[in-house]
Design brief:
about 180 residues, alpha+beta, four-stranded antiparallel sheet, 4 strands, about 15% strand, globular
């Protein structure tokens, strides 16, 4: 994948690069989007939407690109790829034996209450949802943290939502709930 990306990207225009990287990521399989993103510097959202036009000013000289996390502090770990290859081969062994392989992650805490969010929902025209005029947490309600468990074998996700401040305790509880539920 790395050799193909290095060879092809300089030869393609922006739309072609998006489509090429999306197809490379898809062909790679699990982890392909992250790998293509790391090798190319292109955001995953751009790769997921190869038909989108770039955000350029009318004169074609200026653009508003997102920052790219490409600068590394210190020397790269020479064994980094070996770690991922080991994880992938071990996971495949468990999958081949019919054992579940999971990936877990938690997201930032969110305020509980009627707050503005960047999400969208279908509503009747001229009937927007009314929300609070500030985003300060309501002490009586607090915050929640979503914790996700993804079953790689079955391509099924499970989300547990809790209020725990202890991340490790919450992780164990979330995996236990996943195991009991799914």
């Amino acid at each position: 994948m790395e050799e193909r990306i290095k060879m092809m990207l300089p030869l393609l225009d922006e739309k072609q690069r998006r489509s090429f990287l999306a197809s490379e990521a898809l062909a790679y399989g699990y982890g392909g989007i992250a790998m293509a993103q790391r090798l190319s510097g292109m955001s995953k959202n751009t790769m997921k939407n190869p038909g989108a036009s770039s955000n350029r000013r009318f004169d074609g000289v200026w653009t508003r690109p997102s920052n790219q996390k490409m600068l590394q502090v210190g020397a790269p770990n020479p064994h980094r790829n070996e770690q991922f290859e080991y994880i992938n081969s071990t996971a495949q062994e468990y999958i081949d034996q019919g054992e579940p392989v999971i990936s877990v992650d938690t997201k930032k805490k969110e305020n509980i209450g009627n707050f503005k969010s960047n999400g969208q929902e279908y509503r009747l025209k001229k009937d927007p949802r009314k929300v609070l005029d500030h985003d300060f947490p309501l002490e009586a309600l607090g915050k929640i943290a979503p914790y996700g468990v993804y079953n790689v074998n079955k391509n099924i996700g499970f989300v547990n939502v809790g209020t725990s401040h202890d991340t490790s305790e919450f992780a164990v509880e979330s995996i236990a709930r996943w195991w009991e539920t799914v």
